[in-house]
Structure formats: C-alpha cells, structure tokens
Sequence to fold (207 residues):
Amino acid sequence: MFQNAAKSRGRPRNFDETEALKRATQVFWSKGYDGVTIDDLVAGMGVGRPSLYSVFGDKRTLFLRVLRAYAEKKGAGAAKALFSPPSLREALAAFLRHAVEAATEEGSATGCLMVCVAPLVDDPEVRQFLKDAIAGGLALVERRLSDGISTGDIPPDFPVAARASQVLDLSRGLTMRAQLGVPRKTLLKDAEDAADLVLLSPRRQPN
Fold:
C-alpha cells in the first residue's frame, strides 16, 4: 500500500502549471472572484479537482497566486514602457498606452484583474496586496518624473507626487473604460492626450 502511494505521489503531472495559472487568470477575469466555482476552475484550467487542490490549493489561495503572477507580469511591462523612451512625455504616453493595450488584449477579457476584479474581493490579504502594488506603481512614476527634472524635461518645482497619482488615476480610468467597451483606438488617443495633460505646468499662484 505504501509503495503504491509513493508511486502516486511521484507520478509526473499531466498539465503545465504555468499554462494552468494563465487559464485560471482568464476564469477569474471573466467571471469575477465571487462568481467563480471550483467546477469553473477545473474546466477552465484543464486540471482535475484533486490536482487543483494539491498543486494550487483552494480558490482563495489560487486567486492570490494568480494575482501575484499577473501583477508581476503587468508591472514588468509597465516599468519597461515607462523607462525605455528617452523623453518624459513619450515615457508617460507609453505607460498609459500599455494600460490600454493590456486591458484590450485580444483573446482576454477586457479590463484588468487588479483594477476590475481584485478590488471587489473582501479579503484583507488581497486588499493589502493591492495597496502595496499601488504604492509600488506610484514610486515608479515618481522616479520617472524625478528623472525628468534631472534631464530638464520639467522644472524643478514640478509637483511630482501629485502628478504621479494623477498618472495612476488616468491609467485606472482608461482600464475601466476599456471594460465598458470603449474602442481601443479611442483609448489609445486618449492616452496620448492624457500624457500632455499630466505635463502641463502647474498654475502659478499670485503674489
């Protein structure tokens, strides 16, 4: 009996774990956390129920794992978009375009798992993860704006913290509009206009 059990535990998986996680992302993305059942995940991921529990855990544990993997991938893409262009204006436009492109990716549900799904999950660990992710994104944009001061793209008194928050708000707004069905072409144009808006000089207060 123990010999058979050992063989069972050592049996190779008949599915790709990374691919199964990608499929789980689409299930949560399209149905929302509360709307997803274990049967939905079994069908969508292409794994058996015992394998799902043994490899990924329960629904909550799986969602947290999906959320972390999704955030890591999206964060890497956003950082590349933000820091690759040499000019600050193009960097901000690329960052906002990336949000639109990710939210309207062909073959995926529109929107964003972190903007349109995760905030509705009533779980303290999920909420803390989102707070940390927002703080990380804010720090990245602030760093890029500070670089813009160093290169002379914007003046030394530019309101870095306030405009960084504005960039994230614009990104989330574009993502939510994508979920509502606004065409990608329209959103990409709005992303370009938004980059110009962010870089407007702050109003001077009268003496």
About this structure: The chain has a mean pLDDT of 89. The chain is about 70% helix and 0% strand. The two ends are 87 Å apart (CA to CA). The first helix runs from residue 2 to 10.
